[in-house]
# Entry
Amino acid sequence: MNDTSKPGNDRSDRYYQRHIFFCLNERKNGEACCTQHSAQSAFDRCKGQVKAAGLSGPGMVRVNKAGCLDRCAGGPVAVVYPEAVWYTYVDEQDIDEIVESHLKNGKVVQRLLLPAGVGR
# Structure
């Protein structure tokens, strides 16, 4: 039974429909980190694409910076909530596909999913 009277059980009570968090952590000790893979550029690209598509703002999508998301071995990484979908990406086309498919249309980009067991 689905009780939509409880907060969080429908999308109408969410300030944002989705958040995407980009790991922008930088490790000074030489360990693997997302900044080694142009994570800042991907964040900037996503933020620009979301805005250009008219998806930004309350009730829609928020693009956020994050510190270490502890999945460094799969870096660079981003995660979309509330679905908790973890992505890895290579280039601007991957970011564009995440924006168009997932953030705009709600369809997960299967080919960019970070395998479940990948950690630090």
Notes: The chain is about 20% helix and 20% strand.
